[in-house]
């Protein structure tokens, strides 16, 4: 009998404690409508930086000693350390016939492909053989050069006075001279298949 009373008392105690917890959990939280005296000063640095473009801070990379370097290595080092805006040109392959409408399509395609790789570069068609590019962040110039030279339409990447081509490709002047020579020979024997003059857009 004592055992039954003890079990009954424990059961009654458990039920009472559960009711208290349920009642406490159901108490509504009351927020007043008078918030004039509340000061909201919880803006942190992340909130202030939200929406601003992120700037890449490159790791410190001291320039190497250039006294014993060959000129191509010096140019590669200069290209790697360029941080300001960049403007340059891409010469398209001259031996490939294309229309004036195709060049803006190439420029648009390159802009979109680079955007997926988080490189902000904009391309604009200049003429049927030339595309101009602009970049806000010059530190991506080396990646841009590698991308351009991997595209089948591109022949030469020019930044300032420096021109970059695929290994083994002759200078652009030699290609132009060869094409003019072929056009001249074709004109002597009959009409030329394609004239390679500059057609502005």
Write a concise keyword list for the protein shown above.
201 residues; alpha+beta; 5-stranded antiparallel sheet; 6 helices; 41% helix; 15% strand; signal
A few lines on this structure:
The chain is of the alpha+beta class. 41% of the residues lie in helices and 15% in strands.
Question: Mind explaining what this structure looks like?
Answer:
This is Mesoderm development candidate 2. Keywords: Signal. Residues 44-66 are annotated as: Disordered. InterPro entries: MESD (IPR019330). Residues 1-25 form the signal peptide. This protein is of the alpha+beta class. The protein contains 6 helices and 5 strands. The protein has helices at residues 2-25, 45-49, 71-80, 102-116, 141-150, 172-189; strands spanning 86-92, 121-127, 130-135, 154-159, 162-165. Strands 2-3-1-4-5 form a 5-stranded antiparallel sheet. A hairpin with a 2-residue loop joins β2 (121-127) and β3 (130-135). It is elongated. The termini are far apart. 12% of the residues are buried.
Mean pLDDT: 78
Major sheet strand order = 2-3-1-4-5
Content-based structural category: alpha+beta
Range of helix content: 40-55%
Distance between the termini: 105 Å
Number of E-type strands: 5
β-sheet strand percentage: 5-15%
Order of helices and strands: HHHEHEEHEEH
List the total number of helices.
6
- Calculate Rg over CA atoms: 35 Å
User: What coarse outline follows from CA principal-axis ratios?
Assistant: elongated
| Biggest beta sheet attributes | 5 strands, antiparallel
Runs in which pLDDT lies below 50 for 5 or more consecutive residues are none
Region (Disordered): 44-66
Signal peptide: 1-25
Keywords: Signal
Protein name: Mesoderm development candidate 2
């Amino acid at each position: 009998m004592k055992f039954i009373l003890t079990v009954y008392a424990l059961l009654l105690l458990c039920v009472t404690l559960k009711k208290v917890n349920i009642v406490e959990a159901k108490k509504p939280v009351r927020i007043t409508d008078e918030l004039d005296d509340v000061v909201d000063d919880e803006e942190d640095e992340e909130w202030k930086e939200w929406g601003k473009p992120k700037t890449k801070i490159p790791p410190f990379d001291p320039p190497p000693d250039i006294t014993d370097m060959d000129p191509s290595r010096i140019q590669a080092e200069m290209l790697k350390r360029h941080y300001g805006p960049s403007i340059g040109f891409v010469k398209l392959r001259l031996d490939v016939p294309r229309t004036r409408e195709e060049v803006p399509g190439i420029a648009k395609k390159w802009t979109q492909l680079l955007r997926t790789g988080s490189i902000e570069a904009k391309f604009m068609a200049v003429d049927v053989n030339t595309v101009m590019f602009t970049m806000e962040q010059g530190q991506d110039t080396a990646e841009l050069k590698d991308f351009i030279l991997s595209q089948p339409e591109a022949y030469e990447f020019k930044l300032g006075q420096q021109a970059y081509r695929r290994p083994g490709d002759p200078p652009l002047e030699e290609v132009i001279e060869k094409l003019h020579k072929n056009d001249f020979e074709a004109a002597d024997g009959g009409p030329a298949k394609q004239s390679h003059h500059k057609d502005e857009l």
